[in-house]
Amino acid sequence: MTRKKTLSPIDIHSHNFRTRLKGYDKDDVKLFLNAIAESYQEAAIENAKLSREVERLDASLEEFRSRENLLKDALYTAQKSADDLKAQASREAQSIVKEAELKGEQSVREAMVRAHLVERQIMDLKIERETLVSSLKDLINRLNHLLSAIEENKDKENIQTFTRGASE
Length: 168
Prior knowledge:
mainly alpha
C-alpha cells in the first residue's frame, strides 16, 4: 500500500487494494471505502466551511483590533487634550490671580497716596483755619481798641462840648 501525505475523497474511493488468497470481500471493502470517502468528503466540506469561518473571524478580529487601536489612540488624544486644557486653565487661573493681586496692590498704593493727600489737605486746612482764627482775633482786638478809642474821643468831645456850652 502506498501512502500519500493527503488523501482526497476521490483518492480513497478510487484506491484499489491488491488481492491475495483468502483476502477481504471486495464488495465490503468497496462499500466501506465509499462510506469512508463520503465521510471524508463531508469532513473536507466542513473543514473548508470552518476555514472560511476562521478567515472571516480573523478578518473581524483584525478589524476589532484596528478599531481598538483607533479607540486607544482617540482615548490617548482625548486624555492628552484634557490634560493640556487643565494645564492651560491652571496657567490662566494663576495669571488672572496674579494680575488681580497686582491690580489690588496698585489700588491699595493709589488709595494710600490719596489718603496721604487728603490728610495733607486736612492739615493745610487746619493750619489755614488757625491762621484765620488768629487773624480774626487780632482784627477783633484792633476793632475793640478802635471802638474804645472812638468812645474815649466821644466822651472827650462830649466833655468839650459840655464845657464849651457851660462857658458860653
